[in-house]
Specification:
Strand content: 15-25%
Number of helices: 8
Distance between the termini: 22 Å
Bound molecules: 2'-deoxycytidine-5'-monophosphate
Number of strands: 7
Radius of gyration: 16 Å
Structural class: alpha/beta
Helix content: 40-55%
Strand order of the largest sheet: 2-6-1-7
Largest sheet: 4 strands, parallel
Shape: globular
Length: 191
């Protein structure tokens, strides 16, 4: 087992920004678990499955292989060998990921193999890497996180409304915190 860094927190707090920098500086692999849940979400959406259809989502996990790789130093996500990175940041994909990630079978599909890694997500310090050497819980106010997402989308030329993003973040926070499986919670030993 290598050196593990766990960074958890709600949507838009800056987890991936920090995780990428730490990984680069230390030469560790950065595993963006949110992007992997998003990759699976694309799979469910392409099959036309509704987020509340647990049986169909569980069935769809059987033929989904989500992997992470790098091209020119930039993280890519592959769904059954096809590069779907450009779809990951769509709001609909984030919402499907937030809903489907509460299903234990979905979580089991994405269990990680660990070496020297920086991982960010919701349950890294509590469930995936409970013995991580460093645990960080990164958070910020809803309005601050919504502004970060808003600027991210603006930079990409995606039309969006700040108020709608704020509302979606609040809804996602609620789902991520209140679900039964691997809820978003600060690990007792997280900074
Ligand atoms: O971090 P993100 O916004 O890319 O994550 C998208 C969704 O995936 C998030 O709403 C909850 C889920 N997720 C999770 O359940 N567990 C993780 N370790 C990472 C993300």
């Amino acid at each position: 087992m290598g050196y593990n860094v766990a960074i958890d927190g709600p949507a838009g707090a800056g987890k991936s920004t920090i995780a990428k920098r730490v990984a680069k500086e230390k030469g560790y692999i950065y595993v963006d678990t949110g992007a992997m849940y998003r990759g699976l979400a694309v799979h469910f959406m392409e099959k036309g499955i509704q987020p509340d259809n647990v049986a169909e989502i569980e069935q769809a996990c059987e033929d989904a292989d989500v992997t992470l790789g790098y091209e020119d130093g930039v993280q890519q996500i592959y769904l059954n060998g096809r590069n779907i990175t450009s779809r990951l940041r769509e709001e609909a994909v984030g919402n499907m990921a937030s809903k489907s990630s509460g299903i234990p079978k979905v979580r089991a599909t994405l269990m990680a193999k660990t070496k020297d890694v920086v991982m960010d997500g919701r349950d890294i310090g509590t469930v995936v890497l409970p013995h991580a050497d460093v645990k960080v819980f990164l958070t910020a106010s809803v309005s601050c996180r919504a502004k970060r997402r808003y600027s991210e989308l603006q930079e990409k030329g995606v039309p969006c409304k700040l108020a709608e993003i704020e509302k979606e973040i609040e809804e996602r926070d609620y789902r991520d915190i209140h679900r039964d499986t691997s809820p978003l919670v600060q690990a007792e030993d997280a900074v």
